[in-house]
Design a protein that fits this description.
Elements: H1 12-16, H2 27-38, E1 45-46, E2 49-50, E3 53-54, E4 60-61, E5 70-73, H3 77-80, E6 97-102, E7 117-121, E8 133-143, E9 146-155, E10 167-172, E11 181-187, E12 193-201, E13 213-224, E14 242-243, E15 252-254, H4 268-273, E16 280-283, E17 294-298, E18 311-319, E19 326-333, E20 338-346, E21 354-360, E22 366-373, E23 382-391, E24 418-419, E25 431-435, E26 454-458, E27 469-473, E28 484-493, E29 505-514, E30 520-529, E31 537-543, E32 549-557, E33 565-575, E34 602-603, E35 614-615, E36 637-642, E37 651-654, E38 665-676, E39 682-689, E40 701-708, E41 720-727, E42 732-739, E43 742-754, H5 764-771, H6 775-787, E44 793-796, H7 800-803, E45 811-812, E46 815-818
Length: 832
């Protein structure tokens, strides 16, 4: 059997590991602490009090550290720092207490570590016993200066003893965006010790250290080990895990193999940290076992997972011996009585312990099942140790253990993801697998959190232009398995933004399918534009396909490619109907930026010889107009007509069907530019009702927006924003209608947003400057707006729907100001 390739990838705990911090407590202080701890037990749960009665429950800052943990409350957070509420989630959560550390403090220190971390220690703890202790807590982290949170075990040494290293029990480096998350840690230790929370700040040399940031902890409890449901160290038993009755044999507990040719010499903890205590669970493949025999170990029943927050199961495996069979992780659905395999690995992996990870998601109560299968001979002992669960997704590790190859941390290779070949002509660039050592920013990957880790970055070259893009594609996934979720970490960072605004580019996720006729369809499910910040952020999107499909990750450069960075890391797939995160990346039906196609919008006529809306290209575009999105020479649609009879050459672009929404209105926004010399050019937006209540002769149509090019300066086209409110109480199509005698209109960046449009168009100054050429007239109109009401709208005299209403107040030249009168409510956001 082929030997499995493992990588000695550092875990998050090891990445965050730091040198031992020498304690500065004097012998007298140490002795008094020991005496106090022996007569005093910590409270079962410490919620750190309330705003007017804050307490640390005998947790104390470590002597000698310059950064300090403080007791705080939400009501004080904007003054002193910390999150705006405690972790209770109650109506008065802003008054609840917690402990926090403000990470932007700059402190003088000869040693960088003392200025980078704050430690708060529990009262002294005696031996945990073999069943261990469960540390449960809530945590929150936010801000550019915050770098991480760890839970440490600090051995307490009697006077004259040898100082020992702190042991990392748990750690995270990911911001919670100010939200509270829950965590549990199970550990065992046979000596006096303390539990320590360490908050970690960015290094003082980093520019982000001066920005505000915090790490906060709440609702800390030290409980019996069995309270960490599903966790197990196998020191004092199976922690509630049970051997199945209908398998071939049982899992057993061990401390070390009796055969040097298979099995581990010690448990994982002793392998990593030394010491004499520790155990693990294993299958014994010796006589009377035979190839194919299976042993199954089942967890206690666990609660269903949130579709937006799966669990990450972490465990350590030892697969050493010539006859290693198969270790599998199975989810057993307790309600539907079905099982599915989520992780499986076969063959020898070397005489060492390796950490494995797998995302766990289930809509129903479930159990985790460890299945060990005997291999070809009796040298096939399989061992597991230190099972734990954390909230959030994680890529399956090692990647070959995933049932569907797609998860990837990019530490070894691209895991089957591949750049689209140049012959297919879908893109212009490639994605590159690089480490933090090869770039200026970010200098760290997400997986390891250091410059040695790898991730994928959008390539740059000397001949690219705005709009250049790269596609990387997954292997094919089987469809029809219900909703699936893709989660990942991304970075879109534009360090220097000029006065034209952010123009970094876009990161997108697409689903590619192919029907029986060979027609390829690419559907966007996630898109995020331009600068999002200098740090890694989490993203996710739902996939729901009945046909087999592939996933495409697309990166597109804007006009700011010289100093920007676009990258992604740690891709995970799991079952569940997750929501789109962040919300700004949601792709709605009808949204389109026309970068390479018209997104499911359709021309009314498909005949090439007939007038129609067209995509701008480098060689064919009106007045050399660049696109609005990136300033590229293509990436928008336009119509350009020449005909003496304007009414004979109407063009229509029809949206995909927009399904009725709970909110009765959608705001349709877009950018337009007029060009040419014809005075009869018009742009209209028409709503076509698709409900069953439409008239029998055809679908009802309603003109909701009109703009004429007459009296506009079309010699130098410029992009102008517009929006119109659309009735979304029934299904509908929108039609972009245009006609002209010599010229036309260009359109870009169309989008549907839930809710009503603003009563007063926020870019009034731009519209006035576009419609009115005299600077003194522009100022008179703007002054009129400022002196009246923000709810007034600007109407052009050529918009017939506006001129049919009673006009009052300001009247300047050919531009009229109208109040929002009830009788004209339907036009308040629709005409100029």
């Amino acid at each position: 059997m082929e030997k499995v390739r493992w990588t000695q990838r550092k875990t998050k705990d090891e990445v965050l590991a730091a040198p031992n911090v020498i304690q500065e407590k004097t012998p007298d202080l140490l002795e008094s602490s020991l005496v106090r701890a022996r007569r005093q037990e910590p409270a079962e749960i410490c919620d750190f009090g309330t705003e007017n009665d804050l307490s640390t429950c005998d947790w104390a800052n470590r002597n000698g550290t310059l950064l300090r943990w403080e007791a705080g409350a939400g009501a004080l957070s904007n003054w002193l720092g910390g999150p705006s509420t405690d972790a209770s989630g109650s109506d008065d959560a802003d008054k609840g207490g917690y402990i926090y550390c403000e990470m932007s403090q700059i402190v003088p220190s000869p040693e960088g570590r003392a200025a980078q971390s704050a430690f708060i220690e529990s009262p002294m703890q005696e031996t945990t016993g073999p069943e261990g202790k469960c540390v449960s807590f809530s945590y929150s982290m936010d801000g550019l200066s915050a770098a991480g949170l760890r839970v440490l075990l600090h051995p307490v040494v009697e006077e004259g003893g040898v100082e020992m290293y702190d042991r990392v029990l748990w750690g995270t480096k990911d911001s919670t965006q100010g939200k509270w998350m829950e965590a549990e840690v199970l550990y065992t230790y046979n000596q006096a010790h303390q539990v320590v929370f360490e908050s970690i700040a960015k290094e003082q040399t980093e520019s982000f250290r001066k920005y505000r940031g915090f790490v906060a902890v709440d609702n800390v409890a030290l409980k019996p080990g069995l309270d960490c449901r599903g966790h197990c160290t196998f020191e004092g038993g199976f922690c509630g895990w049970t051997n199945d009755e209908d398998d071939d044999f049982n899992w057993a507990l061990g401390r070390g193999s009796r055969n040097p040719s298979t099995g581990p010499a010690t448990d994982r903890s002793s392998f990593m940290h030394g010491g004499m205590e520790g155990g693990y669970a294993y299958i014994d493949s010796s006589f009377p076992r035979k190839p194919g025999d299976r042993a199954r170990l089942s967890s206690t029943e666990l609660e269903p997972t949130d579709p937006d927050s799966p669990l990450c199961l972490r465990f350590w495996t030892h697969l050493y011996g010539n006859g290693i069979g198969t270790l599998s992780i199975i989810i057993g659905d307790e309600r539907e009585e079905k099982e599915r395999e989520i992780w499986s690995l076969s063959g020898e992996a070397g005489n060492a312990w390796y950490q494995a990870e797998v995302p766990v998601s289930s809509l129903n109560p479930f159990k985790i099942i460890l299945s060990g299968e005997v291999g070809k001979n009796n040298l096939g002992n399989i061992a597991v140790d230190d099972l734990s669960f954390t909230h959030g997704s994680c890529p399956t590790t090692p990647q070959v253990a995933a049932p569907i190859l797609g998860d990837c941390s990019f530490e070894v290779d691209e895991c089957g993801w591949s750049n689209v070949g140049s012959r297919e002509r879908y893109d212009d660039l490639d994605w590159e697998r690089i480490s933090g050592q090869g770039v200026r920013a970010p200098s760290q990957d997400h997986t390891q959190g250091n410059e040695k880790g790898f991730f994928m970055a959008l390539a740059k070259n000397n001949v690219q232009r705005p709009g250049s893009r790269a596609w990387i594609m997954s292997r094919e996934f089987k469809g029809g398995l219900g909703p699936q979720c893709i989660s990942f970490w991304y970075i879109l960072n534009e360090p220097f933004i000029d006065n034209t605004g952010p123009s970094l580019g876009v990161l997108g996720i697409h689903v590619k399918t192919q029907d029986k006729m060979g027609n390829v369809n690419v559907t966007s499910i996630w898109k995020l534009y331009n600068h999002q910040g200098p740090e890694w952020r989490s993203g996710q999107a739902m996939i729901q396909e009945t046909m087999d499909y592939s996933i495409i990750i697309e990166g597109t450069w804007g006009s700011s490619r010289a100093n920007g960075f676009i990258g992604f890391d740690d891709i995970t797939f799991y079952g569940g109907a997750c929501s789109t995160k962040p919300a700004a990346a949601t792709v709605r039906t009808g949204d389109c930026r026309f970068e390479r196609d018209i997104c499911a919008w359709q021309n009314e006529t498909l005949e090439k010889s007939s007038p129609s809306w067209r995509l701008a290209t480098v060689s064919r575009r009106p007045a050399n107009l660049p696109d609005k999105t990136f300033g590229a020479p293509e990436g928008y649609i336009y119509f350009d007509l020449f005909n003496q009879n304007a009414g004979s050459n109407m063009v229509r672009l029809i949206s995909p069907q927009i399904v009725a929404t709970e909110d009765p209105h959608l705001c349709f926004s877009f950018w337009f530019a007029a060009f040419g010399i014809g005075e009869a050019a018009e742009l209209r937006i028409v709503r076509q009702d698709n409900s069953t209540n439409s008239n029998s002769e055809g679908e009802e149509s309603e003109k909701i927006w009109l703009l004429m090019a007459k009296d506009m300066d079309t010699s130098r086209p410029m992009w102008t924003p517009a929006q119109v409110e659309v009735d979304s109480s029934t299904d509908f199509h929108l039609m972009l209608e245009g006609q002209a005698t010599n010229g036309g209109f260009a359109i870009d960046d169309v989008a549907f947003t839930p809710g009503s449009c603003s009563k007063f168009f926020t870019r009034t100054d731009m519209i006035i400057k576009f419609l009115v050429k005299a600077p003194e007239m522009q100022e008179k109109i703007l002054q009129c707006i400022r002196e009246t009401s923000a709810s007034w709208i600007l109407c052009h005299e050529n918009a017939p729907f506006c001129t049919s209403f009673f006009m009052t107040e300001c009247l300047v030249g050919k531009v009229v100001m109208l109040p929002c009168h009830p009788h004209m409510a339907k036009w308040t956001s629709s005409c100029y």
